[in-house]
Amino acid sequence: NPLIVHVADLASAESLARLDDRARTVAAAFWPGPLTLVLPRASGSRVSPRATAGLDTVAVRVPAHPVAQALLRAAALPLAAPSANPSGLVSPTTAAHVAADLGAAVDLVLDGGACPVGVESTVLDLSGPAPRLLRPGGLDRAALERVLGPLEAAADPERPRGPGQLASHYAPCLPVRLDATDVAADEALLAFGPEPLPGGMARRNLSPAGDPAEAARNLFSMLRELDASGAKGIAVMPIPARGLGEAVRDRLRRAAAPRPGPAG
Q: Cα angle vertex 218, ends 88, 192, to 5°?
């Protein structure tokens, strides 16, 4: 998967990528914020091919979080990095999650508090003639379509052009069962809405009010808690795909996908 290259502002993005009128319009509307743009590499761009997976495009984001902005301005360089968790596993949303996942493999964790959105950025591909939504995320589809019109889907999931497109991703150790209408006694329940299913040996509710944005904020932390519950699996109630619910459903679908076997 390509990595996201984080920059402090639009001017920094222009040193790495070629922005057309569409890119400038969405950047003006949504940057800084949870939006990653996949754009053609600029001539002379210093981004390593290792960060772009050898593609002729680069994934660029201007984050809004003040800690991220302070780090970028102090470094005075674009920063390309993977998510702060082992590949394919549940994303972290607190510094404690990062420390638990990576331990001594990292020297320092910057604690900016719990992630305010909860799911990763939306990834929008503007490198071709039609805008493509590669990954739903913290900026919902409707907001982008109000600016750009209808978005096409990712063309080839086997050859990802942006981060977070692997079939199995964001996965806890326990198997995940989607759109559950019942819960076994040895399962954990990940509920949604004011009428959670009865049963299960452990229970969390993403949003008792049925709010997709609240569900997004709680998703990864609650998956982690249920993964440690001692249950045999996690049953997930249906979640509508409206607003950030599309991103929540995307993460859960990948969490429930068949896991890749060991290499060799």
A: 105
Query: Locate tokens 């959105």: which residue?
Result: 117
Chain-centre distance of CA 121, in angstroms?
Answer: 5
User: Which amino acid, 148?
Assistant: L
Nearest alpha carbon to residue 26 among 42, 13, 37, 16: 37
Peptide bond before 136: cis, by omega within 30 degrees of 0?
no
Q: What is the pLDDT of residues 217-260, one digit of tens each?
A: 999 999 999 999 999 999 999 999 999 999 999 999 999 988 76
The beta strands (E) that lie in the chain are given as 4-6, 35-40, 57-61, 79-81, 122-125, 132-135, 152-153, 176-177, 187-191, 202-205, 233-236
Residue 194 DSSP class: S
Residue 123 near residue 137, CB atoms below 8 Å? yes
Alpha-carbon gap, residue 107 to 191, rounded angstroms: 37
Task: Compute the 3-state secondary structure of the chain and give helix, strand, coil in percent, each to the nearest 5.
Answer: 25, 15, 55
Residues above pLDDT 70, as percent of the chain: 92
Cβ-based neighbour number of residue 63 at 10 Å = 22
| Residue 81 β-bridge partners | 4
